[in-house]
Write a structure and sequence with these properties.
about 50% helix; Rossmann fold; alpha/beta; Arc Repressor Mutant, subunit A; 3 domains; 14 helices
Length: about 260
Amino acid sequence: MFGAVLVSGPRQVGKSTMIEKVLSEFASVRRVTFDDQLLLLSALEQPDTFLKDNPPPLFIDEVQRAPKLFYHIKQVLDKDKKKGQFYLSGSQQFDLMEGVSESLSGRIGLVNLLPLSLREQNMISYDAPFLPTNRYFEERGKVAKSVDYEFLWKTIQRGSLPEMVVEEHFDWQLYYGSYVGTYIDRDVKKLAQVADEMKFTRFMTVVASYNGQLLNVASLARDVGVSQPTAERWLSILVSSNIVYLLEPYYNNLINRAIKTPKL
């Protein structure tokens, strides 16, 4: 359907694993990752040559690290309308969407991969989208499984990233400590140019404590000790990198949907 497909989502959510699984039946698809510094340098300095050395069909992991490549992918797709030429994955949604909107709009299919849902963790095959109808609840009830307190608490505490679900012996504090460190070092420094990393880490902690509450940026700023514009900028970074999700209110009235405050 598209010349390129981009899978975005949080770090460690399984983007590369999913794409490799889907493409495993196609031996002709080459795989490169921009965690390889030599490949990254080639893509940054000579994107045309990089694509000639790595012709499609091509899977590029961590593609957001070479944003100029999007324009050159566009040129390839403009010359050859064949579908399924490029498979891309990346974690920094801000950089990804900026590159896509500027160069690949209308030429690329977008998939945002989230952590495992409770349905997936319980291996429930029913996947109809939620609708507030009696029929939906009747059909859903036929396959629903009861959730005990222990499972619910473990899910809240450990989260739903695939590794933490599958590897039950993993220490969640060590895992997420490393996760946050990598996130700040590889994503936040580039996006936000944060001078005080400890204060940004505190901001993340405070945001987590507001989970499920109505968004109040002024309170976040006050609790962390930063200005409201800084809090707004930092929050937008957390949202764009899939660390935070803002749940927008649902109203029949479209104006109310647009103006009412979302939940963190």
